[in-house]
Amino acid sequence: MRHRIAVVGAGPGGLTLARVLHRHGLSVTVLERDAGPDARPPGGSLDLHEGMGQRALEKAGLLAEFGALSRPEGQAMRILDPDGTVLRDWRPRPDDRANPEIDRGHLRDLLLGSLDVRWGSGVTGVTAEAEGGARVRFADGRQERYDLVVGADGAWSRVRPALSPATPQCIGVTAVETSLDEVDSRHPGLARLIGDGSFAVYGVRRSLVAQRGSGGQVKVYAQFRAPLDRGAEPGPADAEVVRARLLERYEGWAPPVLDLLRHGTAFVHRRLYALPVDHAWPHVPGVTLLGDAAHLMPPLGAGANLAMLEGAELGEALAAAPAGLDEAVRAHEQRMWPRARRWAELTTAGLNRLVGPDPAEAIALFDEVQPE
Ligand SMILES: Cc1cc2nc3c(=O)[nH]c(=O)nc-3n(C[C@H](O)[C@H](O)[C@H](O)COP(=O)(O)OP(=O)(O)OC[C@H]3O[C@@H](n4cnc5c(N)ncnc54)[C@H](O)[C@@H]3O)c2cc1C
């Protein structure tokens, strides 16, 4: 019997699930709000861990292609004091493939492959039906019925309310993101300072992190424990206002470090949110969640990895039990909840150390994760 399965959201989690289902010959409908794959800038770089994101790509049959697209040298990490002193300068061995970096856009294209995504399909809500399955509602009033709806629609999921009343809460850290293009030719001094991978400076309750993507692009993240402004969040037109306020907030830091802010182009300002670390829900046949929709946590290198692993595992389980979708979904939830909780606790504690009162804690955390 052919089941009707819908995945809401074409992010890393939803696309991995769809690819694995596809690989096993199951048909799936991917509903994505964006008008097309290039409707938004794809964002920066992701590191995919060996036992998580890379394992998911292996299950999707895409590990070899990932090897060709990813940047193992991007694992390098340099940490400076706010005064510019180099505290750590870690470089991976040439054969180190533990956490290679990949541009989000490259990962999206790799996962998309020949998948058929229904772009421009923003879901407004989902209702589980008493006799099993669920109904998906769209903005234009249309409704569609599926045997299983998987909400992979990120932090502000429209599927989640069918299962749980939880909403993400602000965690007290503001992040401002900016970018530098063609850094090697336009800002060679900064390019040397950043190195091949990531570059971080930790101060009291604030940090500045720069991360290389491919083609000379660098994303810069300023994170601090206070809202930038108590009023409305500034829009893109206020780039110079945001830059001036950031330079004030990081006053006294070494001039080459502050050049990351001086040369940044557009600024994106967001507060960080998370779901409760123990977020779970009573099982409802016909609807489930994965990725950020299920367990939004601080952005410390786990979210995309978890979303992809969950997508791949759920896809394999559904393919192995086509007669009993519900059994596979229950197993997915039982596997996801404790693992996500562990990562939510780790990343919450990690963020408190990276953007906290004592910058030495940030270095100590790095040494624990990267003891060599
Ligand atoms: C600055 C930053 C850096 C990060 N770095 C890393 C890292 O290095 N490694 C890592 O593992 N994680 C990282 N993360 C976390 C990671 O980005 C997320 O955890 C990951 O993207 C979650 O994947 P997802 O598929 O669950 O959701 P998302 O990536 O949020 O994808 C959700 C998709 O659903 C679509 N959608 C939303 N609402 C609807 C709707 N109503 N109807 C239809 N479609 C909808 C969206 O358009 C989107 O395409 C980082 C996060 C940030 C903010």
Automatic annotation (TrEMBL):
Q: Per UniProt, which keywords does this protein have? A: Cytoplasm, FAD, Flavoprotein, Monooxygenase, NADP, Nucleotide-binding, Oxidoreductase
- Enzyme Commission (EC) number: 1.14.13.-
In this chain, FAD is annotated as bound at D47, R104, D292
As cofactor, the record names: FAD
Please list the GO terms describing molecular function: monooxygenase activity
Does the record carry Cytoplasm as a key word? yes
Per the record, what are the reactions this protein catalyses? a tetracycline + NADPH + O2 + H(+) = an 11a-hydroxytetracycline + NADP(+) + H2O
- Where's it found, cell-wise? Cytoplasm
Q: Which SUPFAM superfamilies does the record match to this protein?
A: FAD/NAD(P)-binding domain (SSF51905)
Q: Where does NADPH bind?
A: R40
Q: What sequence ranges are listed for the domain FAD-binding?
A: 5-323
Kindly state the subunit structure of this protein.
Monomer.
Q: Which PANTHER family match?
A: FAD DEPENDENT OXIDOREDUCTASE DOMAIN-CONTAINING PROTEIN (PTHR46972:SF1), MONOOXYGENASE ASQM-RELATED (PTHR46972)
Domain remarks: Consists of an N-terminal FAD-binding domain with a Rossman fold and a C-terminal substrate-binding domain.
Q: Family, per the entry?
A: Belongs to the aromatic-ring hydroxylase family. TetX subfamily.
What this protein is reported to do is described as: An FAD-requiring monooxygenase active on some tetracycline antibiotic derivatives, which leads to their inactivation. Hydroxylates carbon 11a of tetracycline and some analogs.
Q: Any idea what this protein is called? A: Flavin-dependent monooxygenase
